[in-house]
## 1
Amino acid sequence: MTIATVARERDLSRLDELPVEFIDELPGATDDTETATTRNGLGDSFDRVQSGIQGWLRHWEPLRLPAFTAVRDVMPDGDRGRSALQSAPAQPDGAVRLTASLYDPPNREGEPLAWSRNWASLAVLPPARESGRLFYRFRVASRLVLDGQASLSLVSTSVNFGVVADAATASPFEVTGFATPIARPLMGVQCRPDQDASATQTFEGSIAVRQGETPAMAFVIGTDVLFENGWVRVHEGSSTWIGPTEPGASGTIEFRYVPGAMLRLLGRLDEPHVA
């Protein structure tokens, strides 16, 4: 046994002894207690750290979506097809609004009449200050206020979504899988008298980013109508929109950057190139 080991065991044995001589010298209740109550030898409490972490976890940055722009319009031949399905002027509120008045005579021959329209919006985020991950979340919702009587009348809505880590090197419209909608809020709704259908879905995701990269997100809203033999009206109030996950005004999505150091601390870092 070495000298250091002996000394260490001797010091540890002293921990079992109560320091009676110090306890006997503690001040009494009548002594000055101001010094004892103001001393800072206990250090800061954990409350401030805990509240800071909880506040950070709850905080998401809002990002305003630019107004949607019409990008695709498929319709039956002739003026009737061009004028039947209308959309209100786009506003920067994340919404696309529709109205329609359709009529197909019973004696018309041929395939069912079909309309398909799309609107797109591109949102560019602030540059990442540190390498890590971009987390995002948003809500997709649709409402169709319909009326009609036809042998075939189906209305569907859809949303396509793409995200890239850096808009300078890639386009969110060209990411793998962008052509497949992430959501079809309302699928094949029939135009029956006084039909009012609505649906909503929430989406969350993330992507690895490097310091200085500027992520971008692309949204495409679509509406499809398949109609034959009868009449159909799509009334005001029919729309599809993008908004935050919590109920409220549309037109914004939510995002947050999480540094790689925080991800490593949480054991959630799975991209080896993230510093």
## 2
Amino acid sequence: MTLLSSPQGTPERVWSLVAGLFALGGSSPRATYEALLNPGFERDGAEVKAKATLASDAHNAALSLALVDSARDQVSLAVSLPETFPQFADLVHDRLIALDTGDGDAALLEGFAWMVAESDRKNGLEWIYQAGREEFADKANAGLTGKEMNSTKAVAWRRWLAFLGLGLPMPSDRSAPDYPSPASRILREIERSGIERGSILPASDFVALVARRMPYLDRGRLFVQACQRIGHAPPVGRLSPLLSAALRDLHDDQSLRLVPSGDAADRVRLSADSSHAIDAFTTVVLFPGAIQ
């Protein structure tokens, strides 16, 4: 029972479930809880229920994330519920990065770490869109501890990544894989770190901060583990194409400012992109709009 093996347990359904349980006082008889999961509706005088998997997968996902305690006759919240959906994403993110390798749900972020490492090995992201669903799942399994991924689980995987701020749907082609981008989560984690807006960090300190709070990115423990699994040695002093693209996006929308001037020895290089003026940086200004 994992998030990926409960594909109908979407983040929105899980949030609705735990929020509904909270509204009931945080604990509910199982019969009431099951009605909350699948209340049904009346059509032509008859009661109609949704597919049972919609409810069971939401419940299983909540159990897998340790959000609820489930006894024979009673179900209770096992966490202090955040007030907002973005804060719920923070809670889930914190739980996932704390998992040990071998936990069923560890595959979600270990899979993202593999994608970052593979993008670095292939020096780009085009390969993601060149592989079919089955081929992509096979490639992902090569970077994981076991056969955690298949074409069905990959759909649930991408859905949870988007929820966490690690992926963007492709608006021009709904059948295409989501674009892997940690930009939103980077901003969220910087905000949550408590560092003052307008602060200026040396490039190496900034990369270390990102790796610590998002260990599936460059130099983080899950990234290092993924590189070892696929036999890849990351270039010293250069960031992966996936992280480089996210930082350029944040620079362009003025959420961060990548400052390229300074001693070349202190620079961190980005992966090549001939369409962008920034190819390296020595310092990072956090939320430059906050500077008066």
